[in-house]
Structures are given as structure tokens and as C-alpha cells.
Design goal:
With about 500 residues, the chain is α/β, with parallel strands linked by helices. It has 16 helices and 16 strands.
Length: about 500
């Protein structure tokens, strides 16, 4: 009876489906032929029960012997959100095709350009684009529900299970292994690399695109000066880009070093004083803040020297009737409410999202041959009841959540595996995950000097999705390819 019941239960569970196609990519004049497998993979829990179909696209280089395949690096990549599918990285920089957008301007409606991606990483590694449960084709199975996957620790667990089982299923457990995440994907990376290490899977490297590890740097909690401090250099960089700096220095990086010094030595102590700062001191500080950001001193006085990123979006170009982008402050858009305290939309997202969405779906169903009856969720917000559980093991104090921070996992993983390297890619004009916030987090991990040397920081004169910017696209490819080559030998 048990066997009959088990079979009946199994028959109600949808099976994984993979759609195979042959693709190619030309990189620096050399054509690579690829096998692409797009579809779903059944993930099982620790008791071997099916819990999810995980959507993915797996690219492997063709015409190779099995021994060569096993030595070839494999990169597991995803976007962030939380709740975003992976099509941004897939069609922006990693896969064999990419979407062309009018950076840093609005891209007109279709037909969109889907072109060969000369900047793909497929010449140095095989690639698995992953869509976490709730995004893409990924859905729960059996008794599992969406909420079982929607949280910091739940997400880390499900991705760890997928990666382990996928490596085994494809005979790649002994291949050089990498994680590549963007935005919340970097927050995920830090926890996931530690979870995988505890499960016996050491990584060769982890690539962080537009990183965040400590969510205080983004959330502007009450009475916490840190987010104001770490955002300020990006406000100044934005003013430099838009020519709003008096006597603008010619070298952006020299300018930013000056801004970092001012932020650390003058702005931070002023905020720390709180209401003990005199009116004269506040006025003097407001004048300096205004000078560095192309804004008005009285605005900083009214803000008590503390301006959130959303307030900056609305204020910075208010006199021109415009707002600047959150994901990339090089982008500007129309401000429909000139009295608004905060920005009402993100011009960068508005400028490129239709091209990425339509272009990817065309590629998914037409080129990758995925069944057109299968719905691809570009975001988990399409799913009813999407809500993220931000609790994270190791962040508790006195029986309550004291932080939302996976930097502790990053530090533990790097300290317990002194060979793993971490590459962090920062967009200077990214006001979603600011570069100075990452620098602050790294300098507060408590790493030994030898371990800290395993972290490589790169900077791009672009935003959160630096790969929309053609010069940064080329730098991205070189930085990532060099990193994989250097760490997979």
C-alpha cells in the first residue's frame, strides 16, 4: 500500500522539462558552438522529497571530450530583487546574445536589437542562469509553497540544494565553481558561499555585481547616520557627471578621493554630534554639502544635513524639471511633481526595461525553444502574496533580529577557506547599492590582512547595471574573464 500511495503522490507532481537547442557566439573573432538547455530542474529536500522545479538555462561548450568538460569552469549566475529573474544578466552581459539599449537615454519601442554578445563569458566558462523560486519558470512542488522559498535563509537553502544536485546530475562536481550575483544576488552570494562550504563545496571564486551585504546602508533606519554617510560620495559623483560642480575637477577618481576624505573626516563627525552641532557649524557644513552635490545649502539645513536617496532623486535636478535614476544616476527623466519630496519613478528602469523584457522573451521562446505555454515570471511580484522574510540566522541578538547582514557569512567563508577569491564590481553612479557602502562593509568584516587581499574591487563609470554602458561592458568582460582564468588554474 505504501508503494501505491507513493506512486499516486508522485503522479501528481509535474516533471522537469528541458528544451535543448544549439546556439553559437562569436567572441573576438572566434565562433563557439554551444548546447543550450533551458527549462526546469527538480530540486529535492534533505529527505529526498521533491520541493521545487527550478528554472534555468545551461550553456555548455560543444565538441569537447568528457575530461575537458569536467575541467571547464562553471558559473552559477542570478539577479537580485529579491524577486527578480535572471534575464537582466542573461541578456545584458553573460549569455551568447545581448539586448542593445540607448545608454544613457530612452530606448525606443520594438523592433529591439538582439545581437551577438562579444562580451559573453562563455569563452572561459560554462554558464547556468538561475531563476529562484517564484521567478522565471520556477515553482514549488508537492507540499511546498512559495513562502517556503521567499526569505533570506530559505532562498540560500534552495539555491544550495539546486547547485549541489545540479553539479551531481551533470557530472560537474569536480569542475572549478563560481557564483555570480547582482544586487540582492550579492547579499545571497555571501550567505550561499558559506552554506556551500559547510556542505563541502568550496568555490574557486565569487563575483559580486553591484554589491550590498549590510542592508543598513540602503534602508535609512531611524537615528542611523550610516546610510547618509555612505550615499554622499555617490551624490557627489552624480553632480560631477551632470556638471553641477563649481570648478569641476577633470579627474573623477581624484575628485572622489577628495569626497571620501571629506565624508570621513568632516561629514561623519558632524552627523555624530546630532543636535549638539551649533547653527553656525550646521550652516558651514550645509554649504560644503551643497558645493559637492550641486544643490542648495538651505536644502541641507532643512534636511538636518541628512538626505535620503529618494529625496536626492527629486531635489537634484528639480530646477530643470527632472529627476535622476536610482539604478544609474546618469539617466534622467521628467519630474511630474516639482513639489514632490521624493522621486516617483526610476528613469533608468523606465528607459531600458521594455527592451530587456520583450527581447528576452523573444529569445527564450523562439531561439531557446521553450514551450510557449509555459509562463515566464520576470518578477516574483507577479505571484500572489509575494513577501520576503528578512530574518537571517546569525543576525539575532537578545532573541530578536538585530541586523540584516550577510557580511558575517562572507567573513566566515573567506576565513575558513583562505583560497577563495571575491571580485566586487561597483558602478560609481549606482544609487541603489552605493560603492562607499560596500567599502564600509568590507573594512568592517574583521578580516586578517592576508584574507582581505583575496577581495578585488573594480569600479565602472556607470550604474547598477554597468553593462548597459559600452565601455564598462568591455571592462566587465575583461575583469570577470581574468578573474576566472586566474582562479581556475
Amino acid at each position: 500500500m505504501q508503494m501505491v500511495h507513493g506512486q499516486a503522490e508522485r503522479d501528481t507532481i509535474p516533471e522537469a522539462e528541458v528544451f535543448t537547442s544549439m546556439q553559437s557566439v562569436n567572441i573576438n573573432g572566434r565562433t563557439l558552438y554551444l548546447t543550450a538547455q533551458a527549462g526546469t530542474f527538480e530540486v529535492r529536500d534533505e529527505q529526498n522529497k521533491p520541493i521545487a522545479l527550478m528554472g534555468h538555462t545551461f550553456y555548455t561548450k560543444g565538441d569537447k571530450r568528457e575530461s575537458e568538460t569536467r575541467r571547464r569552469p562553471v558559473v552559477f549566475a542570478y539577479n537580485g530583487g529579491p524577486g527578480s529573474s535572471s534575464y537582466w544578466l542573461h541578456m545584458g552581459i553573460l549569455g551568447p546574445k545581448r539586448i542593445v539599449v540607448n545608454d544613457p537615454d530612452y530606448t525606443p519601442a520594438s523592433p529591439y536589437q538582439i545581437v551577438n554578445n562579444n562580451f559573453s563569458i562563455l569563452d572561459v566558462a560554462d554558464l547556468v542562469m538561475i531563476d529562484p523560486v517564484g521567478t522565471g519558470l520556477s515553482v514549488p512542488l508537492g507540499k511546498a509553497q512559495f513562502k517556503d522559498f521567499w526569505g533570506v535563509d530559505q532562498d540560500i537553502r534552495s539555491l544550495a540544494l539546486f547547485i549541489r544536485q545540479f553539479l551531481i546530475a551533470n557530472d560537474r562536481m569536480n569542475s572549478p565553481k563560481y557564483l555570480l550575483g547582482e544586487s540582492y544576488g550579492t547579499f545571497r552570494n555571501a550567505g550561499l558561499m558559506n552554506r556551500l562550504l559547510k556542505d563541502g563545496i568550496a568555490l574557486n571564486g565569487v563575483i559580486m555585481v553591484s554589491a550590498v551585504f549590510d542592508l543598513r546602508t540602503l534602508l535609512f533606519p531611524p537615528e542611523d547616520d550610516l546610510p547618509y554617510i555612505v550615499h554622499f560620495p555617490t551624490y557627489a559623483a552624480t553632480a560631477w557627471y551632470h556638471d553641477m560642480i563649481p570648478d569641476k575637477p577633470t579627474d573623477l577618481y581624484v575628485f572622489l578621493d577628495k569626497v571620501r576624505k571629506f565624508t570621513e573626516e568632516e561629514y561623519t563627525p558632524a552627523l555624530f554630534k546630532g543636535d549638539r552641532l551649533t547653527e553656525d557649524e550646521k550652516s558651514a557644513m550645509a554649504a560644503k554639502l551643497a558645493m559637492y552635490t550641486g544643490t542648495k545649502a538651505d536644502y541641507w539645513v532643512k534636511a538636518d544635513l541628512r538626505v535620503t536617496n529618494s529625496e536626492f532623486f527629486a531635489e537634484f535636478l528639480r530646477d530643470k524639471g527632472e529627476i535622476v535614476g536610482r539604478l544609474d544616476s546618469r539617466f534622467t527623466g521628467i519630474n511630474q511633481d516639482l513639489l514632490a519630496q521624493e522621486g516617483n519613478h526610476d528613469p533608468q528602469s523606465s528607459a531600458i526595461s521594455p527592451a530587456y523584457t520583450a527581447g528576452f522573451l523573444d529569445y527564450l521562446y523562439r531561439d531557446l525553444k521553450v514551450d510557449k505555454s509555459l509562463h515566464y515570471a520576470t518578477s516574483a511580484y507577479e505571484r500572489k502574496g509575494f513577501k520576503w522574510d528578512w530574518k537571517h540566522e546569525g543576525n539575532e541578538r537578545w532573541g530578536t533580529q538585530a541586523a540584516i547582514n550577510t557580511g558575517v557569512d562572507l567573513a566566515e567563508a573567506m576565513s575558513r577557506d583562505p583560497h577563495v577569491k571575491v571580485l566586487i564590481l561597483n558602478g560609481i553612479y549606482d544609487i541603489a547599492t552605493v560603492f562607499y557602502g560596500v567599502e564600509h562593509s568590507i573594512s568592517h568584516l574583521g578580516l586578517t590582512p592576508e584574507i582581505k587581499e583575496n577581495i578585488i574591487m573594480k569600479y565602472y563609470e556607470a550604474g547598477h547595471m554597468m553593462y548597459t554602458h559600452p565601455p564598462s561592458m568591455a571592462h566587465f568582460k575583461k575583469d570577470v574573464a581574468d578573474f576566472i582564468r586566474d582562479t581556475s588554474r
